[in-house]
Amino acid sequence: MLKKLADSVFSFDVEWIPDPKSAEILHNSPRADGPGKDAGNSFEELWASARKESDPPGFQPYLKTILCRVVSLAGILREQAPGGAPSLKLISLPVDPADPQKSDEKTILSSFLKSVGRRKPQLVGYNSAQADVPILVQRSIVHGLPGFGFSDRPNKPWEGVDYFDARNSDYNLDLADAMGQFRDRPTLHQAATLSGIPGKLEVSGDSVAQMWLEGNLAEIVEYNEFDAFTTHLLWARIAHFSGLLTTEQYGEEQRLVRELLETEIAENRPHLRRFVDEWDRLLDITGQA
Fold it and tell me: Exposure pattern of 217-243 as b/e (b: 16+ CB <10 Å)?
């Protein structure tokens, strides 16, 4: 299971869509920079090129991440000074979904790389080693961005933070790997809800492309924030199982998450009330209330 609890932990999730620019470059599709019919046609070009003969018409296959565009990134930043108490903060990109400049993929990627490169937190995700981290790296390379410290690698595993050595480094944690392998690996929704933690609330990853085409980026960001809280609560539960958090510390971590949720709700994120309500419902069902 988990072996290390760093002073800084970032439990995160990324949302992406098929990239119309990829369709323009690879399939000569008409240019489509924003939501709408042309972008939908670009999506279909990419999906069609990835379909197998046995797939039904209209099937939307999983695309290689380099062919996709990052539209949202959210996470819970946990920081704890030596000997001090932990604190939590919600990080959500784009900070203003209504602002095209702040919603630009290059801006989102730059913000992530700079912040992680400076703070060097322990990254925590679900299926992040296979999806979230690769898309962030690949799309940063596509945009010609420098690593801003995120890409730095120590000469030896014990000499520093390494986000690219899953075998020897504890700084790129994929909770899916901790939960199981192959057919026995649960989805994030399954692992969370059975543990009394809210999972997918109405929206799923398959819905994100259509939401973006309809101009609902703000709703994608809200959905992404739900997943960030889910991921952090599952991380805390696994850290407790791994002996990194005592039972008392695990209870305190849940209290901090609830406190953060209430603070964010009061500061104009009313959608998070649904997360709190679902959390209470699941705790009651699972007998953990």
Answer: bbbbbbbbbbbbbbbbbbbbbbbbeee
DSSP code at position 65: G
Q: Which pLDDT band holds residue 204 (cuts at 50, 70, 90)?
A: low
Catalogue all structural domains in the chain, each as residue range(s) with its CATH number: 8-285 (3.30.420.10)
**Does the pLDDT at position 228 exceed 70?**
yes
The total number of residues shown for the chain amounts to 289
In this structure, are strands 122-125 and 8-18 parallel, antiparallel, or unpaired?
Answer: parallel
**Residue 246, Ramachandran bin (φ over 0: left; ψ between -120 and 50: alpha; else beta):** beta
Find how far residue 40's CA is from the centre of its chain: 24
Q: Please tell me the least confidently modeled range out of 44-58, 87-101, 115-129, 157-171.
A: 157-171
- What percent of the chain shows pLDDT beyond 70? 99
Torsion of CA 10, 112, 136, 273, to 10 degrees: 60
